[in-house]
Amino acid sequence: MKYFQIDSNLFVKNRKKFMAHMRPKSIAVFNSNDIYPIGADSTLPFEQNRDLFYLSGADQEETILLLFPDAMDSKHREILFVRETNDHIAVWEGAKLTKEKATEVSGIETVYWLTDFDKIFFDLMTEADTIYFNTNEHYRQAVETQTREDRFIEKCKKEYPAHQWAKSNPILQNIRGVKEPEEIELMQKACDITEKGFRRILGFVKPGVWEHEMEAEFLHEFVRNRSKGFAYSPIIASGNNANVLHYLENNQEVKDGDMILLDLAAEYANYSSDMTRTIPANGRFTDRQKEVYSSVLRVKDEATKMLVPGTIWAEYHKEVGKLMTSELIGLGLLDKADVQNENPDWPAYKKYFMHGTSHHIGLNTHDYGELKTPMKANMVFTVEPGIYIPAEGMGVRLEDDVVIQEKGEPFNLMRNIPIEIEEIEELMNK
């Protein structure tokens, strides 16, 4: 791993929170992700299952975490199973977790080789009434591939049909949404790396550069600061490309007069940051570009103030819609008749701002976290309004990551990343 080892106390706390929600005489099992093939002998880079990582810190394939708070033998209340390593594996693939290192990383005293799982699991299931399955129930999930977790659930239902089943996901939605101080520190590190990349790019961009060249500059800066790279597929959209919300080609030449929408950010230790900035290719905003940009920035700043404990996510988005409607009228993009005659299910402002304003962020860019209950302190949300005007060849989006505070306005993890028009122009024209 490129990142510095995380204090295992974080994972100890996370497991305690999870186990406090478990039923009596129940077991919860969490499987690592597979390594996915490309073809021939090629594979995609490994990415750990975020729930397993959240609860153990173990960041390698072929790993299982078992939690059984009521186990008769106290050493079996937390167990980590890892792939047995040897000298051959160390030479060809690099060192894997030893039992001692697995304990150091996770804070779990009982570590077995993965080959022992079936035998130990059978023994423990004779003591248990319920097993928690870890299903992906994120509101945006659309996974078609069968995962290691899916295969385990299928096998378990066949072999233990008399046991009750329960879901880990509601517990994880509850506890992962509220971040521990150590998690916020890791996310701040990701945001700081993102800042380094953005400042680097401000001195690089000019008419004639290519979108993919900017992608390379960001990646260089991210990796040299111990990030694996982008937290999500980077969007580098010049000119009208900015009006494609998930533009990923990044293969066009930047033209004089273009604005460039940059929706990209670094990860650090599997924690995401999520930034969007929109900059002028030639280092100077036109008057119209300034107008639109300033409207988006005002909406972002006012929306941020609403992210306080007790706010309901759906109601918050309605209020942001009102702010955006006012700005669009001021820009001459909507008039009062448009608003009076709007479809309540698709308000008039949606013509120019068609996506949501905020989502949880953490170990996933679109992170787990409750959305139908009031917001709580130490939840971390993005704030990302935008205005998209294909007829004018521009799209503007601005995005920061903020931590809800017990009192007062949220704390902006991206407070040091330039966003004001004057600062961006000054840095681009040094």
Automatic annotation (TrEMBL):
Alphabetical UniProt keywords: Aminopeptidase, Hydrolase, Manganese, Metal-binding, Protease
Domain (Aminopeptidase P N-terminal) ranges: 6-142
Top-level class of the enzyme under EC nomenclature: hydrolase
Known catalytic reactions: Release of any N-terminal amino acid, including proline, that is linked to proline, even from a dipeptide or tripeptide
Keyword Acetylation in annotation: no
Domain of life: Bacteria
Pfam family membership, one: AMP_N
CDD domains: Prolidase
GO molecular function terms noted in the UniProt entry: aminopeptidase activity
Family (UniProt): Belongs to the peptidase M24B family.
Keyword Iron: no
Name of the featured protein: Xaa-Pro aminopeptidase
